[in-house]
Amino acid sequence: MRLRDDEKAMLAGDQGPAVQKAMDLLVRYGEALDAECLVDTRNVAGTIGATTPFLRQYAEREGGMDAVFSEFNLDSAEVVRIPKVKVFSSHLQQGIDPRHAERQGISQDVVRIYETGQAYSSGLGVQPLNTCTPYQVGNVPVKGEHCAWMESSAVIYINSVLGARTNAEGRESTGAAMLTGKIPYWGLHLDENRRGTHLIQLDIDVSTTADWGLLGYWVGEQVQDCIPVIEGVSHQPNLARLKHFGAAAASSGGVEMYHLVGVTPEARTREQAFGASRPSATLRFGEAERRWAYEQVNVTARDAQVDFVMLGCPHYSLEQIWEVCQLLEGQRLSANTELWIFTAASIKQLADVAGYTHIIEQAGGHVMTDTCSAIGKVLPKGTRVAAVDSAKQAHYLPAIMGIQAWFGTTAECVQAAIDGRWKGVLK
């Protein structure tokens, strides 16, 4: 790799051993990818630390949380002192909500470890956003900005909707980027790799959030890790619809970027989306494809009795919480069904002030932060059957937690929480 003078200095250790190890990791990573050089980034979103058993083991070693960062973020068995981060860095979702630890079945020992880790990362200058949707709570990169982000649903959103540039990074590369302000210049950082590969023509209206989730799930299955260009959008999608579309496509496939002709910033026209390339395939999405996607995301669901309704994957926006309140106000949940809504802590603060949290709690539900059921592996005790409005969560939750999951609209999920039974159908 070609290194600039400042990068050579970091690699030589001029800025200390932690920065040296971070640069060494990035150089090895870039060489493995055939990247010709590194690119500057001033926006990193990643995670610090490890799962609880490892976090406990390493945090108790000499060096404490520096030992955790050295091992899990720098791939270094040698413990080095970690300096403050060099660029704006945000922490993604965590494994628990410490304010609802007892309800989530989390011990106070784990809560203490969580609080130690959060204090450590905040002390390094990492913003404690603790969400899979940093773009909803203030970290909003602009078109053309080079970023280093983890989290599949966040990566696809900022690449596609905002026009920022990142590959789907990992804990190690984002940790190293925090200390150096560098990331390998390859993949979706390059113009030529952001062009569309497959043309998807819509034969039906795609309007609701559930519709966009089903379309995303089908698209991901069809194109895998390629870049779809969707043509024929008849209803302008809002943030929630684009968020659920991208999350589903990144889950069923490995999509990191898409184009919606006439909607997303790098696809004013079909020609702009493809550039000099021609589509490798043209696919059509109609009623049969929508039905197939619905059956796939509901493949684990059999029993109509619903124990648990989970909303907020990706984390809910304030508008989505407001929508739930329109459906739930004055109602009461079934005694046999729990409703958990996951969002970012800063959005929950707004929901508290607006009275939305009170409406949900009066009905018997709970607004939680920092995690979700699949990431944190947290469920109400005895859960067998869940209902979700996220195709991503319907894809992961049964595999991770071994339960059944119904997918449907937000209204169908809220009604399931009230009735304790699933009555949703594809309309």
Structural notes for this entry:
This protein has three domains: 185 residues, Aconitase, domain 3 (2-Layer Sandwich); 102 residues, no CATH class; 122 residues, Aconitase, domain 3 (2-Layer Sandwich), CATH 3.30.499.10. Helix 8 packs parallel to helix 9 and helix 9 crosses helix 16. The radius of gyration is 22 Å and the shape is globular. The strands form four sheets. Strands 13-12-11-14-15 form a five-stranded parallel sheet, with helices on both faces. It has 17 helices and 15 strands. With 427 residues, it is α/β, with parallel strands linked by helices. Strand 14, helix 16 and strand 15 form a beta-alpha-beta unit.
Summary tags:
427 residues; alpha/beta; Aconitase, domain 3; 3 domains; five-stranded parallel beta sheet; four-stranded parallel beta sheet; 15 strands; 41% helix; globular
Q: What is the structure about, briefly put?
A:
This protein has helices at residues 5-11, 17-32, 52-59, 65-72, 108-123, 152-162, 171-180, 209-223, 239-252, 270-274, 287-297, 318-328, 345-354, 356-363, 373-376, 391-401, 410-419; strands spanning 38-40, 43-46, 88-91, 126-127, 148-149, 182-184, 198-202, 228-231, 259-260, 281-285, 308-316, 338-343, 366-369, 385-388, 404-407.
